[in-house]
Amino acid sequence: MGELLGYLSFGPSGWGDELLAGLSITVTLFLSTLPIGLVLGFLIALAKRSPNPTLRIFANAYTTVFRGVPELLTLFIIFYGGQMALQWFVDLFSSGIVVDLNAFFAGMIALSFVFSAYASEVFLSALNAVSVGQAEAARALGLGRFRTMQKVVFPQLLRHALPGLSNLSLILQKETALVSILALDELLRHTQIAVGATKEPIFFFSIACALYVGLAFLSSLLIKQIENWTDRGQVRV
Amino acid sequence: MDMELLIKYGPKMFDGLLVTLQLVSVSLLLGGVLSLPIATMRLSSNKFFRGISYAYVYFFRGSPLIAQLFLVYFGAGQLRPFLQDVGLWGFFRDAWYCTIFVFSLNTAAYQAEILRGGIQAIHIGQREAAKSMGLGPFVTFFKVILPQALISSLRPYGNEVILMIKGSAIASVVTIFDLMGATKLAFSRTFDFEIYLIAALIYLVVVEIIRFIWDKMDRRLTRHLRPLSDQ
Questions:
Q1: How far apart, in whole angstroms, are the C-alpha atoms of residue B18 and residue B5?
Q2: Contact B167, B24 (CB under 8 A)
Q3: Residue B71: its chain A contacts at CB < 8 A?
Q4: For a tag site, which of A116, A134, B35, B210 has the least CB within 10 Å?
Q5: How far is residue A173's CA from residue A133's CA, in Å, rounded to a whole number?
Q6: What is the pLDDT averaged over residues B203-226?
Q7: Phi, psi (5° rounding) for residue B222?
Q8: Which pLDDT score, from 0 to 100, does residue A43 have?
Q9: A85 interaction partners in chain B (CB closer than 8 Å)
Q10: For B204, which of A68, A84, A206 is closest by C-beta distance?
Q11: Cβ contact, residue pair B166, A71, below 8 Å
């Protein structure tokens, strides 16, 4: 047991610093995907309520596709497809330059597409939960469309959207592990490297799982705080 | 579309699709059976049982499926002498059984939570009425509580089926030639990007078919709960 714990030490012989570095990339990937996914998801939700039928069809197709295709496949499609598109674009200007799409970037894009598809449904039902009278009253008071959304509708829909969004963000956190397949040096990938060197799969994969669970636990505490904050205007029974 | 590509790799991908469907249905079924005791323990008044089942569910829902799969698939090799002694090495040596094992444990955690939600949503009066009619706890659960809980859990169950189909693509990472595995193989030989798009389309069609069937089933099974005008 002491030998196993020694593996977790920092420095050249231990894997503690590598695992921590991996964990920080996992968290960074999560934190950079989340805002993109949220904004994209909200825009898709607005598109679903748009009077423009083309926009509506596009938004619904977007949701159907990214909710129906496995995340792993979406990741590959964005990674290889993005690479090809990028190469094609670079070749337009000069030939002979080989470009590589960054795995972190590809993962961020792919995961935010998937996240936004699910989030748009959450935002849509939250938008429907805010009474139409609220927006009408704001308009009657002379607020513009943007101000109405910003100052009246959005703060109210946040409370309805939060439980759904927090669920999705916990799922997103776990999905970052998939990007290890594109050789991004996040937590799971560092764990695999450690296993390769030490031949201690049970120990290291258990540590990785525990770190993910710990991360989920921390996030759920944070989410609880945010929920309390958005509920501050509600009457407590 | 490239016909040659389709003729050469179409049958392989079809086989892969069958593997995916088999993997998902076996895991869902085993997970479903396993979810019953877990959900019961979650609702038990015994603190010990509640703690164990809570930890189980928290672990399997809190860590990535791919990490769980790696833990069992690579971890089994380390336990080889022990597994050989108890005669389970033949089971865990095989990537296919490892995958079924992990997927079943994983979906059991999710299904247990769905079931728990369904059971908790049932009015206490149902239990009391069953008791006053002289039904024992076993009959009450299987004849009164469970059928009603399953109906109200139908939609979340449908979502879990779809999540499993999508999640099963991870099996390709441990050498299983499911639809994703067959697609990766075809791509590595041809470098034709189209093959990934075809695979995406197949997954999409399968998921939409399931969604359609589930909608029909939901409408049929809940017809007694809707007003007459809506049937």
A1: 20
A2: no
A3: 201-202, 205-206, 208-209
A4: A134
A5: 37
A6: 91
A7: -105, 20
A8: 96
A9: none
A10: A68
A11: yes
| Domain B18-175 fold | MetI-like fold (1.10.3720)
Residue A183: is it exposed, middle or buried by C-beta count within 10 angstroms (0-12/13-18/19+)? exposed
CA of B135, closest CA in chain A: separation in Å?
37
* CA–CA separation, B34 and B107 (whole Å): 9
Mean pLDDT of B216-221: 88
Chain B stretch 111-150, residues whose beta carbon is closer than 8 A to a beta carbon of chain A: none
* pLDDT tier, B231 (very low <50, low <70, confident <90, very high otherwise): low
Give the model's pLDDT for residue A232.
83
- What average pLDDT does this structure show over B79-84? 89
pLDDT at A237: 60
Q: In chain B, which residues have their Cβ closer than 8 Å to the Cβ of A192? A: 70
Helix (H, G, I), strand (E, B) or coil at A200: coil
Identify which of A170, A74, A86 has the alpha carbon closest to the alpha carbon of residue A113: A74
**Which of the two residues, A24 and A232, has the higher pLDDT score?**
A24
Overall domain count for chain A: 1
Contact check, Cβ <8 Å, A188/B66? yes
At residue A100, what are phi and psi to the nearest 5 degrees?
-120, 130
Q: Does A235 map to a domain?
A: no
Question: Which chain B residues are within 8 Å of A174, Cβ to Cβ?
Answer: 62-65
The verdict on residue A221 lying in a domain is yes
Q: Do A80 and B193 touch (CB under 8 A)?
A: yes
pLDDT tens, A139-194? 999 999 899 999 999 988 998 999 999 999 999 999 999 999 999 999 999 999 99
What per-residue confidence (pLDDT) applies to B51?
96
**Mean per-residue pLDDT, A77-103:** 87
Would you give the end-to-end CA distance of chain B in angstroms? Answer: 43
| ipTM of the complex model | 0.90
Q: Among partner residues B61, B70, B207, which is closest to A205 by beta-carbon distance?
A: B70
Domain holding A87: CATH number?
1.10.3720.10
Q: Which residue of B has its CA nearest to A202?
A: B75
Where do runs of H (alpha helix) occur along B63-175?
65-78, 80-85, 89-92, 95-120, 124-132, 137-139, 146-152, 154-167
